[in-house]
Design a protein that fits this description.
The structure is a single chain. The chain is mainly alpha-helical. The chain is 48% helix and 4% strand. The protein has six helices and two strands; from the N terminus they run H-H-E-E-H-H-H-H. Helix 2 packs parallel to helix 4. The radius of gyration is 27 Å and the shape is flat. It starts with 11 loop residues before the first helix and ends in a 54-residue tail after the last helix. 24% of the residues are buried.
Amino acid sequence: MSPESTGQNEHYIRVIRRRFRAWRGHRPFWAGLFTMAGGIPIAYFPYASMTLGNMTLAMSTTAGAGSLIIGVLLITLGLTMWYHSIVRVFAGVAAILLALISIPVANIGGFVVGFALALVGGAMSISWAPGKPEDADGTPLAEHPDEERSAGGSRAAAVPQQQGAGYDLAADADGGRHRAG
């Protein structure tokens, strides 16, 4: 083995970082992170008490239980986006709805910080789409014509071919009526 060979003598931090980047690339990571970060202030502020000198400022309200439930649900939805990315659209819509509900329930949505983070996280989750698998030559499989794909490649549903330039639309029009009458 040469000293330039990779793998065996590689530092464990580089290995962990590479594995994390591969894991992060197959799921809506930032959407889940923003959603969880939005749930923390929504759940925390109703139970927080700050001390300014000798004065204690308590944010506790009658809606403390509701804001705790909203915050825990947002954190759960963020974890769901990470570990079950197949339900990312549902989790995103639920995160947006919970963020909107947190405005009247949880101290203006965790003083707008939690509301904004959860709203952005839910929108990112809805808009995230998994990447296209690439062929050996580096081009996505979706861009290959059907004739160039190998028989062992992906089995996509057959797409009907479009009519050529010689197709006459007037021949099938029948004066704007359907063929049945």
